[in-house]
């Protein structure tokens, strides 16, 4: 009996010690130990920014400009219009015709918005403005015209000089873009947008100087720099509406004159654009 009680006590003691020990899970030696914290997001799942495209239309206003007309090779003139006034030519009557979307003053943009804390982007824009020196305005003209010196206020009619960049006063610009989110709720977001850019003017000019008419072709006319501020409303992530006010400085240095394209017109002016556009995003 004593032996049975001793054996029973020994067995109960061993069982109690085993129950008191924590249960250790089996670990595969080939499996690396787990680390604390959030698992890293695979690179293929991280957002990479978005491409976007927009199309819109504009109205324009211009500063007065001193315009120099010169051809001393195949003609004999070198004179300047002082503070000539010019206007835009919106042509919105053609807006509703499907095959005439590029007749009005339009804006086209292709860009990429980086997905980072700075909300920066880069874009290429084509701004199709139109610039028309007003006919039959009184302008002070100074210089030489076929052997005669002139320095007086003159009524400038189209038979004397007519000048227009209407196909157009084109700004091809590369812009740095900055976004600032102002309001973001579900499927609707409003952002402030700022841009600064520079590029060439690939313009098409129609002119008549002393009866010698010239049209086109499209070619390099000079350089333009500009900046803009605006508002952008993103809708359902894939679509947006945008409005901008853009100021620019255009410097025309290579405008052809005459049917032989030997003469040149040179001038510079400031422009102000009001732009309304619609576009779509392609998240990457």
The proportion of strand residues reads: over 45%
Q: State the strand order across the main sheet.
A: 1-5-6-9-10-13-14-15
Please work out how many helical segments DSSP would assign: 1
Task: Indicate the radius of gyration in whole angstroms.
Answer: 35 Å
Instruction: Write the H/E string, N to C.
Output: HEEEEEEEEEEEEEEE
Cα distance spanning the termini:
83 Å
**CATH fold label:** Lipocalin
| DSSP E strands, number | 15
CATH class: Mainly Beta
Number of domains: 1
Shape descriptor: elongated
Largest sheet properties: 8 strands, antiparallel, barrel
The CATH architecture classification is Beta Barrel
Q: If you average the pLDDT, what whole number results? A: 87
- SS class: mainly beta
Pick out the low-confidence regions.
1-31
Report helical residue fraction.
Answer: under 10%
Structural notes for this entry:
With 284 residues, the chain is mainly β. The protein has a single domain (47-283), classed as Lipocalin. It is 7% helix and 62% strand. The protein is built from one helix and 15 strands, in the order H-E-E-E-E-E-E-E-E-E-E-E-E-E-E-E. The protein has one helix at 2-20, and strands at 50-62, 65-71, 77-84, 86-87, 106-113, 120-133, 137-145, 148-156, 161-185, 188-203, 205-209, 212-215, 219-235, 239-257, 263-283. The protein has an eight-stranded antiparallel barrel. Strand 2 (65-71) and strand 3 form a beta hairpin. The protein is elongated. The protein starts with a helix and ends with a strand. Residues 1-31 have low confidence and may be disordered.
